[in-house]
Specification:
6-stranded mixed sheet, 5-stranded parallel sheet, Rossmann fold, 11 strands, 37% helix, 268 residues, 17% strand, globular
Length: 268
């Protein structure tokens, strides 16, 4: 099979399916240590979406995509086209369900349902249930911050900040970490927030998403150099929490982000 984005690859590795993965694309970072068998490395087909020719050359019978937009005429081909070529497709359900403005907030149970479903698809239900049980235990052990701190999730953007809204993975992670999302009322997973609104939100802490193409340090420098944002309490007091991008889309590493953020918040 071929995976698109890091979260599908990481889920399949956690389920013990490394031998079935013939190629991967659009990786958001390196594969974490311990997730894959010793010596295993992904066969990277492309840094972005591979062409259909590159995909077909890998001879997959299955494509697991992180987002519905990964499948279409401009890239791998539509799901109907791929099926006609003998390639089944699967898109992470949270990416399908929680992208609209009418969505209910994503919950960890939704992520666990995805893990269970994918496990059943690949005869790895025992592994899936083990992952879910472990993560439920880890969630219960998270330090209780009880929403005392408000937080802004700064994902990307310079001209207009792109931040975590109230229905997607960022909000789910912040709630589980005991933080109050200043954009919780925004019925979107991520959205563009004008600088004036961002400054007015004046959170206690700012979560900076660290990505290879847009580092947390770059975001911090942007905030500190912005004429208005530099006056925010979190910026002046250097109350930043950094989280790895690959842990911020629905998957097996969301729990890592919760633990990291909760522990950092407890020391603020």
């Amino acid at each position: 099979m071929v995976t698109v984005k890091s979260t599908p690859l990481e889920l399949l590795l956690a389920l013990g399916q490394s031998s079935r993965i013939v190629g991967s694309a659009m990786l958001d970072g390196p594969v974490p240590q311990g997730l894959a068998p010793a010596g295993w490395e992904p066969n990277v087909l492309a840094d972005q979406l591979p062409s259909r020719e590159v995909l077909l050359a890998a001879e997959p019978d299955f494509v697991f995509a992180g987002w519905e937009s990964n499948l279409g005429q401009d890239g791998l081909g539509t799901r109907t086209e791929l099926l006609g070529l003998g390639i089944n497709t699967y898109v992470a359900p949270p990416a399908c369900v929680f992208g609209s403005e009418s969505s209910d907030p994503l919950e960890f149970d939704d992520v666990f349902d995805m893990i269970s479903e994918v496990g059943a698809m690949f005869d790895a239900s025992t592994e899936a249930e083990s992952i879910i049980s472990d993560q439920r235990s880890r969630l219960k052990a998270i330090p209780k911050n009880d929403g005392a701190l408000s937080a802004l999730w700064f994902s990307s953007g310079e001209d207009v900040p792109f931040v975590g809204g109230g229905t997607g993975t960022p909000s789910m992670i912040m709630r589980a970490a005991g933080l109050t999302n200043v954009a919780e009322s925004e019925a979107q997973s991520w959205f563009s927030m004008p600088w004036e609104s961002l400054v007015a939100s004046d959170p206690d802490v700012i979560v900076l998403v660290d990505a290879p193409w847009n580092s947390a340090e770059k975001k911090r420098a942007l905030l500190e150099g912005h004429p208005a944002a530099s006056s925010m309490r979190a910026v002046k007091d250097e109350r930043f929490i950094v989280v790895d991008f690959a842990t911020t889309e629905a998957g097996v590493r969301n729990i890592d982000a919760v633990e990291s953020i909760a522990n950092a918040a407890a020391s603020q």
